[in-house]
Amino acid sequence: MTNYSNVSARAMLVSLSISTWSARKFDRKTSKEVNETHAADLNASRVNLHLLAGADAHADVVKRAALARTESYQQTLPWADEGWRLLPPANYMSYAEAMRKERSAFDGALATFLDAYPTLRETARQKLGTLYREEDFPTVENVSSKFGWSIDFSPVPSGGDLRLELPADTLSALEASVESRVETATKAAMRDAWARLKEAVTRIQKACEPDGIVRSNVIEHAHEIVNVLGRLNVSHDVALDTMCRTVEVELIGIAPDDLRSDALLRADTARRAADILAVMSGIYGVRSETEAA
Question: Which domain holds residue 196?
Fold first, then answer.
């Protein structure tokens, strides 16, 4: 049975914040010159300078930030408030370890970039030519302040947490409003969990179709999704647990090499994936429509 109540006792909220320097700058003066040269409206075009074009060291830092955000999303569920994600205690250790590794990789890439920055700035002077402006570039001493990493945790709101001196009926209405918002957000989080599982099974089905391509990570991806959803099932959705076990039994044990070499196995796997998707649609689809009504 799915339980959307008392989520505050079964999960916490987490927010990962990573800041990076884009190394891009809107050039107002050059934009004006270009538009005037072509007799265009002043807002017809915008010249944006890529200050560190071709600098792999900077690109690596931005890449590591993106990978860390993706990993954080995979290890959590969405929440109503922007930036916050739902994290059940069952997945806290996995999340903490994943973020530790991502932070280490990010810090390593950042250290490499900071070491290379003085040289990269001089290279940019040559590449940008007359477009180069000293003020567009942070100083060597200040460039590190353009990057940051922080993780914050917070309890899930609960109507019972309100301690306000208000009339009883007003306080009761506020508590009900908080609980309603929490329930709505939890339902949305669980829809996201079902959508992840559906996406993983769909990838397997499409890969096993006659014109599909069986990539090495198609089964591994499904395995990772099933594992993490087992820890993220904050609403104790029995149907989701059952469907994850079905995917594990029916699909995850198959080797990609066998799918590539055995046409019969590949066709059978595509059929089983389609059957699972049909059952999933009957549960997840109906539930989503009911919740939306």
Answer: 181-292
